[in-house]
Amino acid sequence: MSRNLILGALLASLVLLAALVSFVWTPYDHAALDIPGKLKTPSAQNWFGTDHFGRDMFSMIMVGARTSIAVALVAVGIGMALGVPLGLTAAARKGSWLDEVIMRGNDLVFAFPSLVIAILITAVFGAGAINAIIAIGIFNIPVFARITRGAALSLWEREFILAARVSGKGAARISAEHILPNVANLLIVQGTIQFSLGILAEAGLSYVGLGAQPPTPSWGRMLADAQTMVSFAPHLALIPGLAIIVTVLGLNLLGDGLRDWLDPRIRVARA
After folding, report:
1. Which among 16, 197, 253, 259 could disulfide-bond with 8, CB atoms 3.0 to 4.6 Å apart, if both were Cys?
2. Quick one: 169 exposed, middle or buried, by C-beta within 10 A (0-12, 13-18, 19+)?
3. What residues does 56 pair with on adjacent strands?
4. What are the residue boundaries of the structural domains of the chain, listed by start?
5. Do residues 74 and 133 touch, judged by C-beta distance below 8 A?
């Protein structure tokens, strides 16, 4: 087991644990205002200090982890649930009009970054975590569709797939029973990477006011609130920034470690 996998799992587990614990306990109420105690530096009483409203930063970071993980997880789930079937269908119908429609549709979505999609969605439905999930999820669909199609195409010419076709199995059954299990490892690794990108996307959308809305804490909005106070309260920007860095680093290391662990060719090469 690689060091990247162990370190990534530890960092990701730390963030996940903080998010889970926040459902039942935080040092203080994350929404409680204490104006006389505002802008306190980190101390034994407030481990990460307080913000400009006197709210406990450690409690807000814990609840913010819950927000970021929920948004990214659901968005990646949407991308996988829709993108994987599209990729399998395109590979099974390679060269057909359906394959062409699916792939050109993917190109169209790729032309609009998640931030632009979020702006379009919020212009119609308003800002909020749900709309951020939809925007990030839509952007993830072509990612999983392309990866699934690329991996599936190399399998359709393999002998065991030809044997399945000779036995009378249809394209849909072959895709579900033979193609999908053989690309699952790749999808797990890509899902981990997209999860980390989802964390960044959620933070970016919240930073510009399109993500989770007050009073729900969000790491991106905490950074936005802190940008005018960096000179005299640097911890307001440093702490949520480090939270984002640790989370994304942990997930990227986890994805890299999973790739090495799940790919037998890499294991043999390093043996």
Report:
1. 253
2. middle
3. 50
4. 3-21+64-270
5. yes
